[in-house]
Structure prediction request, 312 residues.
Amino acid sequence: MIEARHLRVLRAVATTGSFSAAARELGCTQPAVSQQMKALEQSAGTPLLVRAGREMRLTEAGRALVRHAAGILAGLTAAEEEIAAIAGLRAGRVRLVSFPSGSSTLVPTALAGMRAAHPGIQISLVEAEPPRSVEMLRAGDCEIALAFRYPEVRGSGPAAGGAAADPDGAWGKDDLVVRPLLTDRLVGVVPEGHPLAGAEKIGIDEFADEPWIAGCPRCRRHLVEVCENAGFTPRIDFATDDYPAVFGLVGAGLGVAVMPELAVESVRHRGARTVPVEPAVQREVVALTLPDLARVPAVAEMLDRLAAAARR
Prediction:
């Protein structure tokens, strides 16, 4: 195998014309140069240098190898510089996928801090709900996926008792690095004129006779499980993934809803009020990446900044 260090020595010998001069240029001993040239000729399988008096001259094979060495060493130097820039957070990229309420609350602070501290890193953001966001991570379409999962509803499955559940199998495997960010509580949303609008807290069964506005498919499934566990099946009149639309529909008096506090923070309350609900329902918000990606400096830095944004 031809090694880059041998090519550098060969180029020095070709330029200076002798082992001793090449050794002085490279800052090593003449025997070291001679030894590396012997190793290179063994790898090449043919003589590369011939002695002519006090000088070393290239054979035809030697001239060909020196000609190619220039491009090889230049490419290697460029690669080393690029790797050093990525390792030093002067270059690189982070593609982030997030669910909407995470995009409007956690992500902006993290992205702004990252860009200010490391302007050479390219950062992009697209939105997707889990499990689609997790599929994108595994497919190589992003480096970090923000996702959430709900706890198993007591009495509705094998993980009964409140343990975190992953009914879609979104990240219940050992191939992902899971960085917990926060626990996001769900709150009730009612029209301003609703009898329960001023309540300090309400039981979710008090919404048994109300029409409902539901969210994404995973959120709808979890809502049905919670309500059925409370003794009723919710009548879902409208379903939308858009949280401002949920507030708009509730504010127009078309029903009630539950939504994460992260989403509440990002939406203006027009004609709607939030109220705490019991039993307390929470979802776990996490940042996901792959083990190899977690060691990439830019990815590790972004994970830290997302965690810091969640703490704030």
Summary: The two ends are 54 Å apart (CA to CA). Residues 157-165 have pLDDT under 50 and may be disordered. The longest strand covers residues 177-191. The first helix runs from residue 4 to 16.
